[in-house]
Amino acid sequence: MVHPLVTQLRFTRSEFQRGLEELSEDDARRRIGPANSISWSIGHLAWQEQRYWLTRMQGLKPAFPRLMEEFCFGCPPSTPRLAEMWEIWNGVVELVDPYLDTVTTELLESSIQQGEVTFQPGSLLHRTIYHYWFH
Fold first, then answer.
1. Distances (CA, A) of 117 to 18, 42, 47, 61, 93
2. Chain centroid to CA 91: how far?
C-alpha cells in the first residue's frame, strides 16, 4: 500500500500539471520582474525530486545532471523551452515513483545522517509537497 503522504504528493503533482494545461510557450518562458519563468520552475521542481529521491535517499547519480547546474536553489534564472522541461520532469517522476512506492512511516520518521547533514525523509516529503503548492 502506498503511503498516504506519497498519495498526497501525487495529487499535488497532478494539480500542478492541471494548473498549467493551457499554458503557452510564450507565457511559460516569460519572466516578470526578478521572478523565474514557469518553465524554469518546472525544471526546479524536477531538480528537487531528483535531489531528494534519487541522489539523497537512494545514493544514485543524477539522471538529469543539467538540473543540478541550471535549476537548483540559487541557480541563475532562465527561460527554457516548456516541452523540454515537461519531458525532464516526467522523466524524473518516472524514476522516483518506484522508490516512493516503497516508503513506510518508519522510514519517513527516521533520521538519516549524510556527512554533516541530518534529515528526516518525512520532512523532505512535506517540503516537496509544499514546494509544489508554492510554485
1. 35, 26, 19, 19, 25
2. 11
Beta-bridged to residue 114, according to DSSP, are 117
CA separation for the pair 82, 37 (Å, rounded): 10
What are the pLDDT digits (tens) for 73-113?
Answer: 999 999 999 999 999 999 999 999 999 999 999 999 999 99
This prediction has a pTM of 0.95
Contact 107, 52 (CB under 8 A): no
**What would the DSSP string read from start to end of 47-80?**
HHHIIIIIIITT-PPPS-HHHHHHSSTTPPP---
Tally of CB atoms within 10 A around 45: 23
